[in-house]
Amino acid sequence: MSFVLNEEETMLRDGAQQFLEEQAPVTALRALRDSGDPVGFSRDLWAAMAEMGWCGILVGEDHGGVDMGCAAAGLVLEQIGRNLAASPFLSTAVLGASAFNLAGTDAQKAAWLPKIAAGETVIALALDERARHNPSHITTRAAKDGNGFRLTGAKRYAVNGAGADLLIVAARTEDERINLFLVSPEAAGVTRTSRRTLDSHVPADITFEDVKLDGDALLSGAEDSEAAYRHLLDIGRAAQAAEALGVGQKAFDLTLDYIREREQFGAPIGSFQGMQHRAAHLYGELELARSLVRRALTTLDTQPAQAPLWCAAAKAKATAVSRLAAAEGIQMYGGVGMTDEYDIGLYYKRAQAAGEFLGDDAFNAGEVARMSGY
Amino acid sequence: MPLDTFRTETRAWLEANCPPSMRKPIASEADICWGGKDWTFTSEDQKIWLERMVEKGWTVPAWPKEYGGAGLSKEEAFILKEEMKAINARSPLDSFGIWMLGPALLKYGTHEQKLEHLPPIARGEIRWCQGYSEPGAGSDLASLRSKGVLNGDHYVVNGQKVWTSYADRSDWIFALVRTEADAPKHLGISFLLIDMDQPGVTTKPIKLISGKSPFCETFFDDAKALVANRLGEAGQGWEIAKYLLSHERAGIVSEAAFGGMNPVTAAHQSGEVDETGRLADPILRGDVARLTIDGLAFDATLRRIKEEGDHGEGVGARASMLKYVGTELNKRRHELNMSALGMDGLLWEGDKESDGDPARAWLRSRANSIEGGTSEIQLNIISKRVLNLPGA
Predict the structure, then answer these.
(1) Which of these, A318, B45, B231, B319, has the minimum number of CB atoms within 10 Å of its CB?
(2) For B359-370, how does the pLDDT look when each residue is reduced to its tens digit (9 = 90+)?
(3) Which keywords does this Swiss-Prot/TrEMBL entry list (chain B) (predicted)?
């Protein structure tokens, strides 16, 4: 485990930086938004990401992936955050692939992981049922029905839900345990309602009314399905934290550029101590968040049993810091920071949305307290 | 030696040689071993522990063997630290000689100076204090006015220092003294090592809000300092002082990161937990959780910056970030300790020797963001040297 990137990781990061700056800059997000894109991401970009090998970043080589691990996925996500690149990378290449890795049978892995690695499928995790993240509050039920199941329940704000062609649904089985089910969004009884959020993403509310599922819809490869479910969320938290870190870091970089140039009272406003101390404080906060994000991701790869605390801590810190970075950015930009023309406001919106997914700083601080035994 | 062998052997040696009473967290100032001519060991175990570690060179593990260290690599020194932490082993010796003067001597000292001064530091025989600040020179340290006039083989030093930590219990002082009267502000200062056992040096403790007197005023009245005990060239003192300050910052930082009471142990003491061990006050629990998160983040950041340093990136001005973050974090920890203790935290003196410790430690922590360069000075340095902001 190392905080310092190895050669392979450095190449991945640099490649991601260059690719996303060219292929998915903030103007691409604006274009999706302004055209009212129904799914909120570009399929072309997703195909190009597959060509870069990113879709298989957590997929084993035997299933056509490159199997680079969570730390590597985090490096891509940080660059995604920096560019506000809208893509199903987190929901599909990270959460989707990990769901199969953790809970899939050999047959399920063989059926789906190659498609994920090839960028041929978009997956959404249908998890939360309330406005605030609560992974224990699962009332969606999968009742046994012959060899299969009948699924009933309602999910809210499934990320990339509008554009997904496979849903992974958290539902309680008759033993009251939480299990994950593969559900086609086209199946009878599934209703999707697109929701547009402030960051121009398009999650979906999804209801399941007595949806008939085959027996192999259940991800049944894990010894303990609920442990697999929790671990999946830990991976998601660290990954989402990495994206948030990128959002916050870029917001900070933009702000520094601005205060170096903008003049008032005959001097760059960045020369004033009132600005400098806020910027220097923010620098420290970003460094703290960066360390936790890296620590969480590398711990997932090397000592997964110790990862939950680090993942919650990283998510909490990255959420708070990315929000602070963008908020401070708006303040330091002044009036133009409030305009749609400047990008800093888009960073603020994305920081807020990334913060909510899989629990904000308050939720994850509670998790840290619980896991710390107080 | 392969690192895992080193770890195994270190673990076994510590297990065999660290007395059980030295495997408890430092509870108060009284548990720290500072060494020096006048040092009285607080227990036989403290003495044995120091002697055994001195024998191994592990009071200063990374220093060269000829100067009292063990010549360990960075990786080995880190393993030693981890293994000591794993059994809660106390540091056998803490001193400004180790944290601050030692690194400066290693970098700027002549071989003779190193041979004379480093081994007594490593063995805990000589206790050093730092003479930097003056009544008129705090944050603007380079405006200091203590004067040294060359007279043959020595300087004659006159002036006053303030906030000299433990000067009343120290044997030598390393001091910044203006020796080049006509040079520009930053270039007229020399770094002198001064024996305090002479009539021209007197000290006077300053009573603080904590009720304790860790700091003194130190007066030089025609005190003598040998030219042979000037570190570096005449006028090079400011450069050395800045180098040394980065080590002082690292010292303050490591104090912030490890050891001492935390709000959870405090709440257990005051009975402010429910039957499951959960903090009784939910809002306090949230504040403590955020402290835990920042503590984890800070530990991880120390580790990351150290690793990056090993890869040639260097700590540099980021020491200022660590100092700022670490000291503000430590202040928060003490504030939350006091909150968790409730009225118990207000106790000033009582039957037990430890009564009043949390309050005094809390009050003492306020100085963390003042000493070694205030938080505001650190933010200035970050702005200028890390963020490259204009006009800073």
Answers:
(1) B45
(2) 999 999 999 999
(3) FAD, Flavoprotein, Oxidoreductase
